[in-house]
Amino acid sequence: MKSIFHQGPIVCLLLVLLPTLGGCGLGDRHDQEYQQLAPALTKVTSAAEATIRYENHPANLDGQTLLALATAHDASLLEPFSQYQLHLFRIEDHALLLLCSADGERALMEDSGCTAKLDKQHWQQGTHPCETSIAPANICLDEL
Hints:
The protein has helices at about 10-20, 25-55, 65-70, 135-144; strands at about 85-90, 95-100, 105-110. By secondary structure, the chain is α+β, with helices and mostly antiparallel strands.
């Protein structure tokens, strides 16, 4: 009986490439999922920024209360994040949103309310703990 390696170069090539390429699509699923969440996060961030900057709420309100106030006009804004942890931080007069994995272990993305684009895509940069890494005041100065 011939060994499988004597069957020809194509069989050998397939045996080498299939295990290597087989796992390539796993990250794509998460990338697509997170890329779809990014615009939804920037909408929530914009609503939070407007709530913080233009509505007269006490400075000591916690993030979850501010998030509820910011999305009270349209609760569907939060629907895409039901399987994640979403944290709102008020830093001076700016909103900072942090989206983390459901278990709260990993930061996925981070967005400051004074920029139009998503500020940090942590899922693309490896594992990052579920904590803020940007200062809205510095980012907002760059936008002026």
